């Protein structure tokens, strides 16, 4: 069994955060494929265009974004047919350390973890254990 996650998506409105998180995931050889989006809308449009076999295994999602925030993303994502969503796991990766944000995010079926930025090596080890 490979110890790499097949396909990972990063969604964050900060180009700096996207760059740092992407580089971190590359350095720690976390996934075979890594896609980034600067907005929740772009990510949702892309996800809706995929069939079930093309969906990512993991999405890192920021909460605080303009236009559609992380919670808006989660609501729209839940409208994608279940056959497409079933293998996708979502990790909230945010600067928020609010208990109410944590509780609200974990109420969504596909959300499996909540991480306060920055992403750390221990976070990746925990996620790999959950996913693999």
Quick overview of this protein structure:
With 132 residues, this protein is of the alpha/beta class. It has 6 helices and 5 strands.
Structure in words:
The protein has one domain (22-131): Response regulator (Rossmann fold), CATH 3.40.50.2300. It is α/β, with parallel strands linked by helices. The longest helix is centred in the first third of the chain and has 13 residues, at 15-27. A 5-stranded parallel β-sheet has the order 2-1-3-4-5, sandwiched between helices. Helix 2 packs parallel to helix 3. Helix content is 40%, strand content 23%. The protein contains 6 helices and 5 strands; from the N terminus they run βαβαβααβαβα. The protein has helices at 15-27, 40-48, 70-77, 82-85, 99-106, 121-131; strands at residues 5-11, 31-37, 58-61, 89-94, 111-116. The radius of gyration is 13 Å and the shape is globular.
Blueprint (SSEs and pairs):
Elements lengths: L4 E7 L3 H13 L3 E7 L2 H9 L9 E4 L8 H8 L4 H4 L3 E6 L4 H8 L4 E6 L4 H11 L1
Parallel strand pairs: 1-2, 1-3, 3-4, 4-5
Radius of gyration: 13 Å
**What gap, in angstroms, lies between the N and C termini?**
9 Å
- Helix- and strand-based class? alpha/beta
CATH architecture, please? 3-Layer(aba) Sandwich
Sequence stretches where pLDDT stays below 50 over 5 or more residues: none
The strands making up the biggest β-sheet line up spatially as 2-1-3-4-5
Key terms for this structure?
23% strand, alpha/beta, five-stranded parallel beta sheet
